[in-house]
Design a protein that fits this description.
Elements: H1 8-19, H2 25-36, E1 46-51, E2 54-59, H3 74-90, E3 98-108, E4 116-121, E5 132-141, E6 147-158
Antiparallel strand pairs: 1-2, 2-4, 3-6, 4-5, 5-6
InterPro entries: DUF4442 (IPR027961), HotDog_dom_sf (IPR029069)
Protein name: DUF4442 domain-containing protein
């Protein structure tokens, strides 16, 4: 028996459109994403732009996300990249297609300090007829625009008929 799943990306986009213009709307949207994926919410990233296949998230540099070297912790950076790639990809998926992370690869190119911005652009998969893998890149930059990390997130996409598998 096939299970039909709602289009998570459509729900995300509808929530974004409903909230982002309101006072504290971006914070409320970000909080809701963090409630849906609780570990994602632990770093306190703020979604500042969401469109189909695109997401931009800011992360404030504060003690909670720092390491012993007074820079943003490597795991906070990979969490930031994963949460950004997830919303970008989910908003690009056709209805019923589901995605789950199966791999992460990240390169740290500079100490991450100050407010960071992570951006992801991804294409909508054309026709998901079988389980497939889509690589999504997320770039983290500091306030000067310098790249501090580059992450590739591998997403396994399942077609509507096998999404429960």
């Amino acid at each position: 028996m096939s299970t039909t799943y709602p289009a998570a990306g459509a729900t995300l986009l509808a929530n974004w459109e409903r909230l982002h213009r309101l006072p504290f709307g971006k914070r409320l949207f970000s909080w809701a994403v963090g409630r849906t994926a609780p570990y994602t919410g632990t770093i306190g990233g703020l979604y500042t732009d969401v469109r189909p296949g695109y997401a931009r998230v800011e992360l404030r540099d504060r003690r909670r996300v720092r390491n012993h070297l007074a820079s943003v912790h490597a795991v906070a950076l990979v969490n930031l990249a994963e949460m950004t790639s997830g919303v970008a990809l989910l908003t690009a998926l056709p209805p019923g297609v589901r995605g789950i992370v199966t791999g992460l690869s990240i390169s740290y190119t500079k100490k991450a300090r100050g407010t960071l911005v992570c951006e992801t652009h991804t294409e909508s998969p054309r026709d998901v007829q079988a389980n497939t893998v889509q690589a999504v890149d997320a770039i983290v930059r500091d306030a000067a625009g310098d790249e501090v990390a580059r992450c590739t997130v591998q997403w396994r996409l399942s077609p509507p008929s096998s999404a429960a598998a």
